[in-house]
Specification:
With 231 residues, the protein is mainly α. The chain has helices spanning 2-53, 61-68, 72-78, 82-102, 105-108, 112-127, 131-140, 147-150, 152-171, 180-201, 209-228. It is 80% helix and 0% strand. Helix 1 (2-53) packs across helix 2 (61-68), helix 1 crosses helix 4 (82-102) and helix 9 packs across helix 10. It is globular, with a radius of gyration of 24 Å.
Amino acid sequence: MPTATAKKAQSRRTAAPRATKRAAPQRGSGTRARQKEAVRKRIVDAALALFQSKGFDQTTTRQIAGKAKLAEGTIFNYFETKEDIALHFFELEVDHAIATVRTSARLRRAPLEEKLFALIEAQLEFLAPYEKFIGAAFVHALRPTSKIAFSMQALDLRNRYIAFVQELLQESESVPSGSVLTWAAPSVFWIYYVGVLLYWLNDASKGKQHTLALLDRSLKLGVAMLRKGSL
């Protein structure tokens, strides 16, 4: 045993200089990652500005590159198409909404309907500066060839959103588990959100108050039905 311990100690001493040499590339890798993320943000910000001002269908990757002050080839190093840029934005939207619910101390003990309200409210607030683009993307997503709705990336995003809603349902002690209604609820909620989004896009009331009122009433009703375990 002493011999084995001595060998381990010697091995650690021998390995120490190598570990020190590897530290620099790790710092460099971190810098490169930050630089790449900064370029990605420039591309997305430029694209969103053009989607909002010129329209989604009318915007080209060349125009996005010009707005971002990058070569068009650089755009393709990050996103294959402008639809991929749009999908990345919707991923950021879902990330933001989930983080809003998860990091709120107030929501930790809140009723299920309050958590679901906060989830959708955070999504709508994130989308609000780009309402014109969201409307165009909504129409674009209805096309059978649309990557925004029918790609693997879009499916993964939808599944992640549904999985989070499932987590909220499982955490709620007031909702019975095991019923068919509870099992189907997360997928139904996704469809419900799409309906709320469509209503929001056509809501001309100040501060979208009609949408918030609809959201409040319908979520209370829906969660009440879940608690009863029936439609």
